[in-house]
Amino acid sequence: KNLISMIDKITEIFFFTDEFCKEFYKVMEGHQLPEETAKKKRNKPCKLSDSEVITIMIAFHLSSYRNLKHFYLNYVQKFLKSEFPTTVSYNRFVELQQKALFPMVIFLKMMRLGSCTGISFVDSTPIRVCHNKRIFNHKVFDGIATRGKSTMGYFFGFKLHIVVSDTGEILDFVITPGNVDDRTPLKDGNFLKNIFGKLFADKGYIGQELFKQLFIDGIQLITGLKRNMKNSLMSMSDKILLRKRSIIETINDVLKNICQVEHSRHRSFSNFLSNLISGLIAYSFLPKKPRSAEWEYLQGDHSIS
Questions:
Q1: 252-286 burial by CB neighbour count: b if 16+ within 10 A, else e?
Q2: pTM
Q3: Containing H/E element for 249?
Q4: Nearest alpha carbon to residue 87 among 43, 44, 51, 53
Q5: Angstrom distance (rounded) from CA 158 to CA 177
Q6: Cα separation, 8 vs 65, whole angstroms
Q7: Contact, 89 vs 48, CB < 8 A?
Q8: 163 by DSSP, 3-state: which?
Q9: How far is CA 136 from CA 30, 141, 146, in A?
Q10: Cα–Cα distance between 61 and 63 in angstroms, integer?
Q11: How many C-alpha atoms does 31 have within 13 Å on its Cβ side?
């Protein structure tokens, strides 16, 4: 039964990814250099298409496997022969991940992000690439990853900044080094270009200049108050919604523990990005996402208290 449900989910994922890749490469063909100026390359087709590689990556994050190699060798090549009849070796599959990274990012940005409802939540979560005891011996992300600090202590890696709606959909994301301040991505207009209405955040986003900048762009930043700050007037609805900010904490937990966007087995930066992007896409395919109780009530589920 689990195998049948997984095959149905893989069929659904492949339909969306394949349709996107067809349109994507049609657009890309019109922007390629002419043959006389472009460097000659082999046009021999790969045994696995980009849509198949992306499908396998997404399916891995939706499975119970915790290791991509085990998933590919022990599940895809054994039980999914009819879905993927021309598989390649695992080392070749790792190389194909890098080739499929760019269309996978565009697929996430254009097809799998949600729409803003006027109530949004923003937060960052650390993406550790190694244990703190191995920071000085770590070489894969040397010069790329940095040391940062979160509420759970110091870490070595990156930060994943996400904006989510009250329906549990990811609206946008950005990846930064671990030592970047949480407020820095909000100052970039591209990160919040599709966000409007009220944006709820924790105390780490407090800043008068940031509040003014976002307010001019049509976004009202609402945060909690620190102990040494003067109290300000806030509507009861905003106080209640501020308490619902835990929805984004739940989404971060789902991304790490179910979609597996964080692990310490990366061997290159491109594979790190492939794992992270495919994990975010896998989250969009989850049948049930964390939602606010108010949204469930408005949809007709009056069983909540």
A1: bebbbeebbbbbeebeeeebbbbbbbbbbbbbbbe
A2: 0.89
A3: helix 246-257
A4: 53
A5: 4
A6: 18
A7: no
A8: strand
A9: 46, 11, 11
A10: 6
A11: 5
Residue with token string 């009530």? 297
What does the block give as tokens for 178? 């671990």
Chain position carrying tokens 């009202």: 220
Per-residue pLDDT of the chain (305 residues; tens, 9 = 90+): 565 678 889 999 999 999 999 999 888 877 666 655 555 555 567 789 999 999 999 999 999 899 999 999 999 999 999 999 999 999 999 999 999 999 999 999 999 999 999 999 999 999 999 999 999 999 999 989 999 998 888 999 999 999 999 999 999 999 999 999 999 999 988 899 999 999 999 988 998 899 999 999 999 999 987 776 666 667 788 888 888 888 999 999 999 999 999 998 898 999 999 999 999 999 999 988 887 655 454 455 544 43
Reading the block at residue 179, the tokens are 């030592």
Residues 6+ apart with CB under 8 A from 173: 160, 161, 162, 163, 280
Total residue length of the chain: 305
